[in-house]
Amino acid sequence: MDDSLFRVLKIDLSKMDFSVEIRKELFLRYLGGVGVGVKLFEEELDKNSDPLGPGNVIVLAVGAMTALYPFASKTVAIFRSPLTGNYGESHAGGRSAAAIRMAGYGAIVIKGAADHPVYLDIDEESVRFRDARALWGMKTDITGRVIRERAGKEGFRSIIRIGPAGERLIRYSSAVVETYRHFGRLGIGAVMGSKKLKAIVISGRRTIKVEDKVGYRRIYEKIFSESKGEFMKKYHDLGTPMNVMPLNEIGALPTMNLKHNRFDKAYDISGESIASKRLGRRLACSHCPTACIHIAALREPYEEEPYFYKTEFVSYDYEPIYALGSMLGIGDVDGLLKLIKEVDRLGLDAISTGVVLSWATEALERGILRKEDVIVDLKWGDYEKYIEAVNLIVKGENEFYKYMGLGVEAVAAKYGGLDFALSFGGNEMAGYHTGPAAYATNITGARHSHLDSAGYSLDQEMLKEGKMLSPADIAIKLFEEESWRQVLCSLVVCLFSRKIYKPDVVRECLEPLGLRLSEENLVEIGREILISKNKIKEDLGFSFDRIRLPRRIFEIDTPLGRLDEGKLMEIVRKFRELLKS
């Protein structure tokens, strides 16, 4: 395996210093990505520190297959989440993974806190601590533009940056990567903001060696050929917004804070509709042949200038469409794109933002909130009011909006309305009201994310086959899926390609790189990583016994019928047993 993967760059913002460690055994054991990141996080984290204190740590990690195979395009970020107070993990595409690898690192560890705003300029030879005081307060798009003009770097470059939301410690703020990708979930933007870290620029020009060039080319061509199949084609044609209509048709599209399971304007904001009316271009992450990133062209008139327009480009995916569209009753596609654009520029996670705003809209309807606190008269479908409210959250306009910036769990605990505050383990829910497996994923997943064990997919399989599995069988399938995902997220391959990267294919991919593992070895590595994650969560205070279930999820039919709380908790209990076995 190429030796550059074993290099861990450690950066101390408090001391404005850096060092490099060689961790060959760690990478050989855990492949990189999540596996290595979890171990480095455990080593470096001050568990008694506040998530927004200098004792928190950010680990960025890539894997053995990064910059070598199709879809091995993700960087994993691990940190203590200021939203949940517990383990935080987020993945981003773009160019960041290849840039880290070509700079000669397998992982980057950032700790401490600067005494004034800085951004990091990282390459093969050094780390430079650049003054970012002039950038502080800038939105993410302007920040990226200024840094690009300043950097002038040759080679492969990536820019990760935060917006005003991260600077002001909004607990669900994101970090934007290459304008259209994000470390979205669980508040890495606030962690960077607490460290006065405005951005990270990574560039590299190294080549990556493989031991068996003939074997490497053979397996590469096999995977590339499979990438042109029907399963990946759907991501190219419509991207994840292809989910809007199928989920709406089966009654699984959360709408208006999950008061409904269908949206009467779903087609207007569907992948088909946006592609036919607004699609401007498609983009791909590095080493991805599919190009699933869909960019809409938003044409807006200049004020008092008839026949003059500016065209802006906005990336759209299923989750922003759900959270900022159906959840808020927005069926106007241009209004939805304007709201997505503003959320991105401020540096907020779209999912959490939409869920917080939908809760506030219902709470205002019910009279739980006072109009003088909310300031803006939030109404379903009124995107202009939601754009105002998003800016009030980031400004922390009053006590109410300061609580809104802490997440839906915190604001509902303060003002009331917890029964319809849609979060799990403190993390706002994603857009799948498909059935028990989806909600079991939200409860048991290390990130409380739909990406953990894909319960939404299992629900849809049961619906298609017309066969409901027992709680124990659902738990076993979720555990096996989540264990294998730890391997994929250690390598680090995009989970869209999971049907290509089965255990036998992963084994074949690793052999030309000099890493020979059996399929059984790989499965065992995944289980070990999953158990390690949950041990960290317990050490940080997480307990399944204390997780809150919003009553709303039991009130609205799923495609598999009303949720049965007893059976749902049976799935959770079985999953816990598997973690301990």
UniProtKB/TrEMBL annotation:
The keyword Cell wall biogenesis/degradation does not apply. GO terms for molecular function: 4 iron, 4 sulfur cluster binding; electron transfer activity; metal ion binding; oxidoreductase activity, acting on the aldehyde or oxo group of donors, iron-sulfur protein as acceptor. Keywords: 4Fe-4S, Iron, Iron-sulfur, Metal-binding, Oxidoreductase. The keyword 4Fe-4S applies. SMART domains: AFOR_N (SM00790). Its cofactor is [4Fe-4S] cluster; tungstopterin. Pfam families: AFOR_C (PF01314), AFOR_N (PF02730). Residues 6-206 form the Aldehyde ferredoxin oxidoreductase N-terminal domain. It comes from the Archaea. PANTHER family: ALDEHYDE FERREDOXIN OXIDOREDUCTASE. Belongs to the AOR/FOR family. This is Aldehyde:ferredoxin oxidoreductase. It comes from Candidatus Methanodesulfokora washburnensis. The lineage of its organism: Archaea, Thermoproteota, Candidatus Korarchaeia, Candidatus Korarchaeia incertae sedis, Candidatus Methanodesulfokora.
